[in-house]
Amino acid sequence: MKNRMAPKRRRVLTLFLIFFLFLLSFASSLLFGQTPITAGEVWKSFSAFNDEATSHIVVQSDRLPRAVIATVVGASLAVAGTLMQALTKNPMASPSIFGINQGAIFFVVIGVVYLSLSSLVSLMGMAFLGAALAAAVVYVLGSLGRDGLTPVKIVLAGAAISALFQSYTQGILVLDEAGLQDVMFWLAGSVSGRTLDMLLPVLPFMVIAMITALLLGRAINLFITGDDIAKGMGQKTLLLKAVIGVIVVLLAGSSVAVVGAVGFIGLVIPHVARFFVGHDYRWVLPFSALLGAVLLVSADVLARLIIMPQEVPIGVMTALVGGPFFIYIARRGVSNL
Length: 337
Known about the structure:
By secondary structure, the chain is mainly alpha-helical. It has one domain (2-332): Orthogonal Bundle (ABC transporter involved in vitamin B12 uptake, BtuC), CATH 1.10.3470. Helix content is 77%, strand content 0%. It contains 15 helices and no strands. The chain has helices at residues 2-31, 39-47, 54-88, 100-113, 120-143, 151-175, 177-188, 196-199, 203-215, 217-223, 227-232, 237-259, 265-277, 281-305, 314-332. Helix 3 packs antiparallel against helix 12 (237-259). It is globular.
């Protein structure tokens, strides 16, 4: 009993340490930026807000919303990536394998260039619609044929749809260069200028999807042993695949709708989580959520500090981490999920 409890204690301790890193990154997001703000001023902005104090306004109207949004989006993308890798049994899978990013961006471009949409709320709606449609098309294409939905078919379908949407987007922007400036934010990804009001419309979907995902850990443990074994144990694998697909759409689609295309979190974080806790998805999923939040909040802090007073798009920062990691995974040939 003692030996079996030891790994659990280590996991709990590690989880608390990562949570401490999250608190540290969240506090850093409130403190650091173009306008220097002390910890005391941050505290006063919550305990005794003064609408005439610049530091209080900066914290409440800019830094707090972007820290909260980065937390929610980072956790959502990480969990979505974890589920995608479990669903496809592919260690290089991420939400973009469903064409979610590309579908969302394509619909945003359509909204800007052809529908003359300009409000962020309208563009968020277009992004979510495009993400959902792309995922639905990939799921249907991956399910065609005698064997139904298989990892290989869904990967091929995702790659094809992603390339299709990307080529359409590039074609439209070549014909209308003015539209490129309007959608640059969505192409690169950023939490700058986002408000909590922009998160609220999709937050209920993200919360429901996140809670459902965390409850699926035991079922996923059985699923990754193989379809035949899972079916033999009485699991309804087709239903589980459908539920996972819906969760991925809700988490990743909502994230893209709020902050644009932020890549590599869904690819990198699941591997880091499995490094800490092994392959028990009852632990991998919550670790992924917390690690994803840490990564995106930290990336946002670095994005605003590197070339002050300007900011680097947060998607560029995550790519700096995820690009080399992607090459490492490809060269190593990781296959054990």
